[in-house]
């Protein structure tokens, strides 16, 4: 029952094909938060699941559990955005439905929020179960990302996080379609704190973030947050042009002006060939990068809504509340 003296927590959970784990997950989530002295509302965002996840979460719907149903699969980042936009709580907590973000840590997050932090970030602290390859992959991902981008990611920081109402209100105003929720929240600033948690293995099914998706995500986040790649290739172009200029001068002096005392026997055609191949490579690479920026701008100027909700299948929202 709703108690007006208590603060409200909203819990946003993106769901994509989690039929095998959602009930178990929901039980542990409800168990963890109902012991806390807060009113809570769980919002399951069905992100175009193709199994019977929607059916299962619709059955769970109650006073404390609502269902926001997107019209198709938009991806986790956008599902989270839709959920946060529809959350009304004094604090909003986002977590994955696959059991990798243990609900028992919500209590710690809320405690840190009560101590004054606007954002409490879950940081994965043990990676025991992860293979050498996947931890190497994540090191490379964070390393590359932090090098290339203006935004910095703390290694191991996850989407498992709590944000204050004030942060959510600002977050909602950010409407870029190429988005990474964590980065946008990090960009917003505010006072932050961290909760270290031990990640668990995915309970059922496969992680749907394939390598390809992760790489795409890194690239689009990087491009939407910084023009550094453009500079990188521009710099490479400058270095290669300067080196070839230097080489050109050396050959000019050694071979043409002082008559090849070192017996290099450069032919002009060979030099020219190498030079042209180098330069063509550079031009192609920088064009590739430029086209990524253009596609980003293109995406932005379309001004499409970043998600579409299926009103008929959503539960627990009045029609004015759905946007
Ligand atoms: N998810 C989603 N839309 C997608 C892919 C995933 O809403 O297109 C949800 C998924 O149900 C889970 C969370 O996002 O609750 C994390 O997904 P996953 O475990 O596949 O990714 P990872 O653990 O690699 O971040
Ligand atoms: Mg997962």
Question: Any overview of this molecule?
Answer:
This protein is an alpha/beta fold and 323 residues long. The protein folds into two domains: 212 residues, Spore Coat Polysaccharide Biosynthesis Protein SpsA, Chain A (Alpha-Beta Complex); 75 residues. It has ten helices and seven strands. A seven-stranded mixed sheet has the order 3-2-1-4-6-5-7, sandwiched between helices. Strand 2, helix 2 and strand 3 form a beta-alpha-beta unit. The longest helix is centred in the C-terminal third of the chain and has 35 residues. The two termini are 27 Å apart. The structure holds uridine-5'-diphosphate (UDP) and magnesium ion.
* Helix and strand run: EHEHEHEHEHEHHEHHH
CATH class of the largest domain: Alpha Beta
CATH topology of the largest domain: Spore Coat Polysaccharide Biosynthesis Protein SpsA, Chain A
Number of strands: 7
- Judging from the principal axes of the Cα atoms, what is the shape? elongated
SS element count, helices: 10
The multimeric state of the shown protein is: single chain
Largest sheet: 7 strands, mixed
Instruction: Please give the share of residues in helix.
Output: 40-55%
Q: What gyration radius follows from the Cα positions, in whole Å?
A: 26 Å
């Amino acid at each position: 029952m709703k108690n007006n003296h208590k603060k409200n927590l909203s819990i946003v959970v993106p769901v994509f094909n989690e039929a095998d784990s959602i009930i178990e997950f929901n039980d542990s989530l409800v168990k963890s938060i109902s012991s806390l002295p807060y009113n809570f509302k769980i919002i399951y965002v069905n992100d175009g699941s193709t199994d019977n996840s929607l059916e299962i979460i619709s059955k769970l719907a109650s006073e404390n559990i609502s269902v926001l149903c997107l019209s198709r699969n938009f991806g986790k980042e956008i599902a989270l955005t839709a959920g946060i936009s529809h959350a009304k709580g004094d604090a909003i907590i986002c977590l994955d439905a696959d059991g990798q973000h243990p609900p028992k840590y919500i209590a710690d997050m809320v405690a840190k929020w009560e101590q004054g932090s606007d954002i409490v970030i879950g940081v994965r602290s043990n990676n025991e179960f992860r293979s050498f390859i996947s931890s190497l992959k994540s090191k490379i991902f964070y390393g590359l990302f932090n090098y290339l981008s203006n935004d910095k990611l703390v290694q191991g920081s996850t989407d498992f996080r709590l944000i204050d109402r004030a942060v959510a209100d600002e977050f909602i105003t950010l409407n870029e379609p190429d988005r990474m929720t964590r980065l946008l929240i990090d960009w917003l600033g505010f006072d932050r704190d961290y909760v270290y948690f031990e990640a668990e293995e995915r309970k059922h099914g496969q992680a749907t973030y394939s390598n390809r998706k992760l790489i795409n995500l890194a690239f689009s986040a990087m491009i939407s947050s910084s023009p550094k790649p453009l500079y990188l290739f521009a710099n490479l172009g400058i270095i290669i042009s300067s080196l070839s200029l230097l080489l050109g001068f050396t050959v000019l002096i050694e071979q043409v002006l002082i008559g090849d005392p070192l017996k290099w026997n450069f032919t002009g055609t060979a030099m020219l060939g190498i030079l042209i191949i180098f330069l063509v490579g550079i031009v192609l690479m920088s064009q590739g990068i430029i086209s990524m920026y253009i596609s980003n701008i293109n995406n932005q100027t379309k001004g499409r809504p970043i998600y579409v909700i299926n009103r008929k299948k959503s539960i627990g929202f009045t029609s004015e509340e759905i946007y």
